[in-house]
Amino acid sequence: MTYESTLRSIAATDERVIVMTAENRAAIRALPDVLGERFIDVGICEQTMLGAAAGLALRGRIPVVHALAAFLTMRAFEFTRTDVGIAHLPVKLIGAVPGFLSDGNGPTHQAIEDIAIMRGIPGMHIFCPADAEELNAFLPVIIHSQAPWYVRFNALAPVVSHTEAPVPGKAEILSEGYDVALLTYGFMLREAHRARELLEGQGVSVRLVNLRTLVPLDTEAVLSAVLECSLTVTLEDHFQTGGLYSILAELLLGRGMGADVLPIALTHWFSPGRLEHVLDTEGFSAVHIAHRILRQLEGNSTPMQTESEYLFKTYL
To answer: How big is the CA angle at 1 (ends 113 and 69), to the nearest 5 degrees?
Structure first.
């Protein structure tokens, strides 16, 4: 099933579901004809959409709102914080093309601080699906939750065989290992999975952890990974500040713990281009990730310049 068909099925059985958008219909083009008055397009005015969604939620509706992640989280922030967050209303925010999935767009359309913004609202839950399978499997849980949710929309095909259905606050352990704990979420699971294969080819055992929900966080899985593995890596297509690296730092500091942690995250807005090119030039392709981890394990953090350089040094 697609995201659209899953949402349509849920709406067919629950009259409370209202689908809204700020001219971001790419994933829900067929819903206006199906839902009629329960589909609302407010135009390019995300603030209005969030304010209206809060009002609908106060009257017992379940608004599922769609917009580009950059504008949903930044432009409409005050409305999300004040109207939805303070009242803890069950509005569901679906942010399109977050992180590197906004590959062809410049900084104005890049949502790489969205998690930092959303997790600053007490009670806001955050789900980062690795693919369409996770997104569709978890959608009923999100919609029928009493909490507000922010979803980093990702409807790409799976690259891993998931071992269990998504559950809030429960990470998926895709491989056991004790040399490196690779913690990630969302789209970057694809590159993490490939990096794990490269590392294991070099004799490095990897515990690959797909966190799925950053709020609530599976603290037990994270702490076990940190305690049982020699090196912990946080991998994310998000600014280093406020994202997974910050979440881990807060968790460890709160428990008086230290750890050897390698953050792989953005520290600047990325140059737009085709997705594979962006991953390579920004150092987030699987071979870049594997290289950086190997260098860290060897005690040398000198970055490589290009993917071809790594391939040359490794295989020739």
So the answer is: 15
